[in-house]
Amino acid sequence: MSVTVYSKPSCVQCNATYRALTKKGIEYTVVDVTEDEAALAHVLALGYQQVPVVETPQEHWSGYRPDKITSLAMLLSA
């Protein structure tokens, strides 16, 4: 399953999200929206105006969401 984290530099919530995903053993790709205009447009098209935005094939969410990360880890381990 592909997990993408859209982020920007010096983002506290982004760093917390990375740590939580890593701790749960979830592999992810980071895309910096300050360097990738298409990624920024994609995040805005999803309806978000802040990062991090985490996107999986099934869902997406914004902000540091340990509940969503735990649910994702459970889904991946099933």
UniProtKB/TrEMBL annotation:
<comment type="function">
    <text>Electron transport system for the ribonucleotide reductase system NrdEF.</text>
</comment>
<dbReference type="GO" id="GO:0009055">
    <property type="term" value="F:electron transfer activity"/>
</dbReference>
<dbReference type="InterPro" id="IPR002109">
    <property type="entry name" value="Glutaredoxin"/>
</dbReference>
<protein>
    <recommendedName>
        <fullName>Glutaredoxin-like protein NrdH</fullName>
    </recommendedName>
</protein>
<comment type="similarity">
    <text>Belongs to the glutaredoxin family.</text>
</comment>
<dbReference type="InterPro" id="IPR036249">
    <property type="entry name" value="Thioredoxin-like_sf"/>
</dbReference>
<dbReference type="GO" id="GO:0045454">
    <property type="term" value="P:cell redox homeostasis"/>
</dbReference>
<keyword id="KW-1015">Disulfide bond</keyword>
<keyword id="KW-0249">Electron transport</keyword>
<feature type="domain" description="Glutaredoxin">
    <location>
        <begin position="3"/>
        <end position="61"/>
    </location>
</feature>
<keyword id="KW-0676">Redox-active center</keyword>
<dbReference type="InterPro" id="IPR011909">
    <property type="entry name" value="GlrX_NrdH"/>
</dbReference>
<dbReference type="Pfam" id="PF00462">
    <property type="entry name" value="Glutaredoxin"/>
</dbReference>
<keyword id="KW-0813">Transport</keyword>
<dbReference type="InterPro" id="IPR051548">
    <property type="entry name" value="Grx-like_ET"/>
</dbReference>
